[in-house]
Design brief:
This protein has 372 residues and is an alpha/beta fold. The protein has helices spanning 10-13, 24-31, 50-60, 72-82, 95-106, 122-129, 152-158, 181-190, 249-256, 266-276, 279-302, 323-332, 356-371; strands spanning 37-38, 89-92, 112-116, 133-137, 163-169, 196-200, 225-230, 243-246, 307-308, 314-318, 335-336, 338-339, 348-352. Helix 5 packs parallel to helix 6 (122-129) and helix 7 runs parallel beside helix 8. The protein starts with 9 loop residues before the first helix and ends with a helix. It binds pyridoxal-5'-phosphate. The site of pyridoxal-5'-phosphate has 14 residues, from helix 5.
């Protein structure tokens, strides 16, 4: 019998699949629980925009047709809203798809990608799958102003002649840490002009600090920049899978070469366009997140638990008992959050912001688990 594990490419041989948050249906099936809540995948607790749902329903009656492979209408809407050119936008089946195009276009055996310890897990996966090496840069210490955050100096110092891509999540998942205007600009100035810099802004809509860079305005100054965005978080369309990258028309053209022809489906295209124009839903989502972060932060404080200050829609907090035990006991109470030991954050758990009632239930359940 052929051992096919020896036949896959060297990159795939060492690959560990991404670990997603536990789906509600799986918890209910495995534990016989109903009324469980999921605060594990940084999803929008308000659900999708009603306008997006209506647009998706209309699009459903046309699903015998292939989608518009160029995503003309969505690109126009994005270009108009944010003042870009449609030729600067690449659409992906979620922004993870875009991250993969970048890896396939720019990475391969003999070269490397640079990113921070505790950075979003997908960077390591797409780098490895492309057969390139990951150069992982130690994160800032716990007592830094951004505990466990990206260390700009160290990132710059790690780049070598084989580096093709630098991945920066701003803010980062799972830590919620961010890089300020000055820090990021300082880093960009130190990165050679022929190295691609990916700034992953999956949580940009939630940012509360005024000191956050509007990186899409830097594209002319730094033509090596690619900024990634998603409809999965604040726009509430995680299940439909739409994300995009903004870059120079030249880079956009290159990454489009590896994109599958119909990578974003027609229902998703229609829903994303409608969601983009639903500012009411977006600002409600942002308000609920702001209040929820405060509620969770206050609750964790009163339990005496350390958490990493976050600009996202989630908090990473420290527990003394093994986090997997706390996670399991919360599951039994019907509350799904996320272990982050796979990131090397061995004493931490990550909770996504839910509705006020969900946050309260999480905090009550956590208190119960920690007392037992
Ligand atoms: C959630 C997330 C994404 C978005 O993933 P999609 O594929 O768009 O659903 C990208 N980057 C980071 C850092 C994330 O946390």
């Amino acid at each position: 019998m052929t051992d096919f594990s020896q036949r896959v490419t060297p990159g795939v041989q060492g690959l560990k699949p991404y670990e997603p948050g536990k789906p509600l249906s799986e918890l209910e099936r495995e534990y016989g629980i109903t009324q469980a809540i999921k605060l594990a995948s940084n999803e929008n607790p308000l659900g999708p925009s009603p306008r997006a749902v209506a647009a998706a329903q209309v699009a459903l009656s046309e699903v015998h047709r292939y989608p518009d492979g160029n995503g003309f209408a969505l690109k126009q809407a994005l270009a108009q809203k944010f003042n870009w050119l449609p030729t600067q936008i690449s659409l992906g089946n979620g922004s993870n798809d875009v991250l993969e195009f970048i890896a396939r276009a720019f990475l391969g055996p003999g070269c490397n990608a640079v990113f921070s310890q505790y950075a979003f897990a997908v960077y390591a996966i797409v780098t490895q799958a492309a057969g390139a090496a990951s150069k992982i840069v130690p994160a800032l210490p716990k007592n830094a102003s951004q505990p466990y955050g990206h260390d700009g100096q160290a990132l710059a110092a790690t780049i070598d002649e084989h580096t093709r891509v630098v991945f920066i999540a701003n803010p980062n998942n799972p830590t919620g840490t961010w890089m300020s205007v000055t820090e990021l600009e300082h880093l960009l100035k130190r990165i050679p002009a022929d190295v691609i810099v990916v700034i992953d802004e999956a949580y940009a809509e939630y940012i509360q600090t005024p000191d956050y860079p509007d990186t899409s305005r830097w594209l002319t100054t730094y033509p090596n920049l690619i900024v990634a965005h998603t409809f999965s978080k604040a726009y509430g369309l995680a299940g439909l899978r739409v994300g995009y990258a903004v870059a120079s028309p030249e880079i956009t053209h290159l990454i489009n070469r590896v994109r599958q022809p119909f990578n974003v489906n027609s229902v998703a295209l229609a829903a994303a366009e409608a969601a983009l124009n639903d500012n009411v839903h977006l600002s409600r989502s942002i308000d609920v997140n702001r209040a929820g972060l405060k509620q969770l932060g206050d609750g964790l404080n009163s339990l005496g638990l350390f958490f990493i200050p976050s600009q996202g829609n989630f908090l990473c907090f420290q527990v003394t008992p093994p986090p997997r035990v706390v996670y399991e006991q919360l599951l039994r109470l019907g509350v799904i959050i996320r272990p982050v030991d796979n990131y090397g954050l061995k004493e931490f758990l990550r909770v996504s912001v839910g509705t006020q009632a969900e946050n309260k239930r999480f905090l009550t359940s956590l208190a119960e688990v920690l007392q037992s």
